[in-house]
Amino acid sequence: MDKSKYLFLTIFWIAIVLTMAISLATGHDRWQLLPVFGASIIVSIALMVLPNNNSIPGLFPGLAGTGIVGVLASAILCYYYPIFTFPVPTGRYAVGTTTIDLLDNSRTELCDSMNRSHRELVVRVWYPIVSTNAVKSPYLEDARLIPSGVFSHLGAIVTNAVRDAPMVATAVPFPVVIYSPSWSGFKTDNTFGTEELASQGFVAIGLEHPCSVPIALYPDGRVIYSNLSADYTSSDAAMTKFLSVGAQQLALRTQDVRFVLDRLPQIATNRLFKGNLDLNNIGIFGHSFGGAVAAQACAIDPRLKAGLNMDGLLFGSAAKLGAKQPFLFMNSDYPRPTASDLNSPHGTHRRSSLTDEWGFGQRERWLRQHGGYNLTIRAATHANFSDAPLKSRINNGGGKISTDRAMKIINAYTVAFFDRELKGRPSPLLERQSGSPFPEVTFDRYPQP
Length: 449
Fold this sequence. Notes:
The protein has helices at 3-26, 34-49, 59-80, 191-199, 236-268, 289-300, 316-321, 339-342, 347-370, 388-391, 403-423, 428-431, and strands spanning 94-108, 118-129, 136-138, 158-163, 174-180, 203-206, 215-217, 223-225, 277-287, 304-310, 327-331, 372-377, 441-446.
């Protein structure tokens, strides 16, 4: 075997070893590396076993082409489905995280058909800690949450938070902010935001609502599955059903929020927190349907001092009457429907336009009645208010705005809002009547009537 063959063989064996080493180092099979792994094996075997390979026309160009295609294919797949990192929180504190199991003995879990157990919420908490070099927590802590297929790489993602680290000791307690996720969302779906809040001196509590989240996991090994349909545009009947189910879900989830509020004094005594939670200053925010939950919870529970809706329609009494607490609406960039949209002969388009118009009308009515803040991020879509755009650079639901830029804007206004309303700190972002230092943002402040 001449030197060129040895060189070829060495290169592709190195590729095989590196591919296996990367998979072992992350603790997960990186399916994105399969093309380069497979191509390297094919090339290596061909070079070793084919007799008289010098006499085979086009062998070496063909093998070289196979290797190059494998490398390029893996590079492209790694780019579109990356092992991403969350933005480093910008606050003065490092971030800790823990999980707390809360059992509500006053309610039966109606969707647990096998057990008929009591309603149980496993909440995730992010909080300020002293800076440490300890190992960071994985994004998905239970293997059953790791999806198969193209998103299996999420099992290799780590966060900026340290698991079960003690809260930093300060003379002033930290305000609490509750997070409610989307229609079928998980409590970790806004990790880029909850970590930032914790770094800025807040305790963020992520809820997960059994009977809506696809898989709810419990410390005793119990699992509750659900498959909640989000179809509201395919037919008039589908929209009617969605509104009915939405009303039920709103009642269920706002009761979850109130239950967590009831348990906050108990949570504050957790050994990690040492009673350092400010239970007089509690806010709430939510994405999509979670934004409706945030609004409704504010409307019915005065313990909440401020609310933030990230691109969600409103349901329940809050949809018509609003709430008295300071409130911020964050919106994705979509045009207001025209009269022709609202009367379109195409049912799907008409129903989608009607829901968009409801959103515009709900915000206008709320802001007219109670005042508040309203901002729109140009080129952002609904998914930009979650971690989803980080998970892939293709088919991730994100808008044309860069993912990093959208997260920076969302975090800046979220922190400014809760700083103002829960800590009493003025913010240049919110003090102005309109306009924003971010050119992508349309912002307006509405005074309280």
